[in-house]
Amino acid sequence: MGDNVLLEVKNLRTYFFLDEGVVKAVDGVNFKIEKGKTFGVVGESGCGKSITAQSILRILPPRGEIVEGEIIFYRDDGSVDLVKLDPKGQEIRDIRGKEVAMVFQEPMTALAPVYTIGDQIIEAILLHQNVTKEQARKIAIDLLGRVGIPKPEERVDAYPFELSGGMRQRAMIAMAISSNPSLLIADEPTTALDVTIQAQILDLIKNLQKEMGMATMLITHNMGVIAEMADDVAVMYLGKIVESGPVNEIFYNPKHPYTVALLKSIPKVGKKVKGRLESIEGMVPDPYNLPTGCRFHPRCPSYVEGTCDKAEPPEIEITTGHKVSCFLYGGR
Amino acid sequence: MGSNVLLEVKSLKKYFPIQKGFWRKKVGEVKAVDDISFYIREGETLGLVGESGSGKTTTGRAILRAIEPTEGEILFNINGTLINILQLNKKELKQTRKHMQMIFQDPYSSLNPRMTVKDIIGEPLLVNGVARGKELEDRVAELMKAVGLRPEYMIRYPHAFSGGQRQRIGIARALALNPRLIVCDEPVSALDVSIQAQTLNLLQDLQEKFHLTYLFISHDLGVVEHISDRVAVMYTGKIVEIAETEELFKNPKHPYTEALLAAVPKPDPKYRETRKLLFGEVADPSNPPSGCYFHPRCPYAKDICKQEYPSLINIGENGNEHFVSCHFADKLSLAGIE
Questions:
Q1: B105 min Cα distance to partner chain A (Å)
Q2: Using one digit for the tens of pLDDT, what is the confidence trace for A60-110?
Q3: What domain range includes position A150?
Q4: Beta strand extents in B128-194 (DSSP E only)
Q5: What is the ipTM of this complex?
Q6: Taking all residues of chain A, what is their mean pLDDT, rounded to a whole number?
Q7: Do A203 and B338 touch (CB under 8 A)?
Q8: What is the domain range of residue B202?
Q9: B9 within domain boundaries
Q10: Which residue of B96, B145, B170, B261 lies most exposed, with the fewest beta carbons within 10 A?
Q11: Coil, helix or strand for B21?
């Protein structure tokens, strides 16, 4: 293992056991996140990107269970497999919020409405750092200033509803970075925001990351955000990573038919296509009843009968770091 | 302006009162739409972009009188006769509304979960006494086919459909009365990218087939550029720029349009770091800044911008229309997108 790896996920499977059947939300996912780098995860709703993040922090919703796999978190003083920890135990609580922090999509629901943002940030600081309340308040004000909230010494006593969406998201980022995490998981951090505010928040995350040397796992459905932020990208479809690699490889040399189609189907600003967009036929299949073989085969333009519907394609490394799971590139 | 104008909006205003206390005393106003004018030609798509709170949805709803505008004129051309929608009484409005329909953003909340697809799509036909019984069923089947749904599913309830399919049900309902104008309010924002492309294609196909005119409201500049013939940009209740799509994207004349175009994350890593950031937040429509509403965020603002609101003027060359509301519209050289 290289020295630069911070988090390694091996063959992770997270299933939901519901009355209607078993939903294989994450089904055999492998990836590595390097120190200080941004790892982007992109996919449509239901592909398992958020569940992957929740598996790492062990904050899965009820009935969700990690049935297999390892999530190895490398620290200076040795590594720990997060899957083996008790989700309610002290050990994961020390990691959660301190070494691995999370920023959620909807800042209005992720922040408690009856406490001031200062209270909430101070709580996080007191939990993980050995400081007094007064010191924690000073740190909180300093953090709010760092994330670009004007007049932090006043805003520290504001309630979430008194702040705009962008400001709330900044407050949540302040809370997340309060204990200098080595990994920040950002789940659709800008989806609820307007474009000009989105640009500000992405810029903020990028700058904080540079300053603090933390790694980011950025989950989004927006290819534009990925292109802007990520060093490495994983494209997910129905619980699997279908393609992964360095950002330039994914955008300029996409191999998996799903990635190719996804990139073609976005209307790009400044590149007006006359007439119709190239769209992906059909829709995401029912999660209780997944297609056999390659899960993309019913919608795939390059589908080969007798191959794609029979077996799951193996992951093939095309160039260094660029991996794709598709029979077009071998493994038949 | 030619004779083929289908809809003309003149000085439209919609102010919402801010009420306070037990007696609901009026303490202020939110100027959601503040004196805007534009027109839409027959068969064209006018895109309306802006950030949240800019008044795009209010504009769309005010045109259909789904909310009562405060002031202004909305002229609708029905076979050569201009009708001012704001002067119609209830009965006349019902007659006129057949020609204008709406498609909503959220395909989950805009369909009644207790009605079957047949009831949903057939309701406008029934209400207007256009069809009933077998005839209604045939028409619903026809509409479902037109939007790519299988007519066998007519007796199902909305929960049995995916988001993209629900949006198609909403589109079929809007088409039921053969409207001339459809106000599409963020019709693809709630959909996944792959479904979004299918829905946009469908809207374009239907436009060609039924000669529809769209007012297409969206915050997504990529989508608006793709589908629109002309684009209007709104900021805090005002239109700041209107031009042909290509012209507006390549050659924006308002600093806000420039900033908006620059802020969109492009799905191409080579655009990294080229972005100019706009500081500050969208102005508050209940308490807008003095002068030009954009001046506190504008990198080019001068003294006059703090004092006077710039009027919307045409600076297009060679007979092309390019309306901008900026004191320095003809002096600034702004960056578009190549």
A1: 15
A2: 999 999 999 999 999 888 899 999 999 999 999 999 989 999 998 877 788
A3: 101-180
A4: 181-185
A5: 0.84
A6: 91
A7: no
A8: 5-99+179-324
A9: yes
A10: B145
A11: coil
